[in-house]
Write a structure and sequence with these properties.
two-stranded antiparallel sheet
């Protein structure tokens, strides 16, 4: 079961046990526990070189007024846009109107110029 020691400041810790494979008819031998850290939302890593790159998520239904992004864009920046179901940029939520992400944070709030929140999406 995951836990968040130290007040949950950015990492989740898993208690893991490794041991030899169990042979049929033989009991599993006991192994020492090991703790393994994982950054919050650390399931996917997208990296870009000096020339940049792009990423497209699967379509999803957005209900709410904020979108959070766990990213380290120190030394660069991340730009984004919202697309409709046909893959076309949504007016007001285009890449040229986004507020770039250019730092390291586990919860950047994505925003666009002229919109205090994202309830119009």
């Amino acid at each position: 079961m995951p836990t968040t020691p130290n007040g949950g400041r950015g990492q989740t810790w898993f208690l893991v046990r490794f041991g030899p494979a169990r042979s049929p008819g033989k009991p599993r031998t006991k192994s020492d526990p090991l703790t393994a850290p994982m950054g919050r939302d650390g399931f996917v890593s997208i990296n870009a070189g000096a020339d940049g790159g792009s990423m497209l998520t699967r379509p999803f239904v957005f209900l709410g007024d904020t979108i959070g992004l766990n990213a380290d864009s120190t030394g660069g920046s991340i730009e984004f846009e919202a697309l409709d179901s046909d893959g076309k940029p949504i007016e007001g939520f285009t890449r040229d109107r986004c507020v770039q992400v250019a730092s390291d944070n586990v919860h950047h709030h994505l925003s666009w110029q002229g919109h205090k929140d994202l309830h119009l999406l």
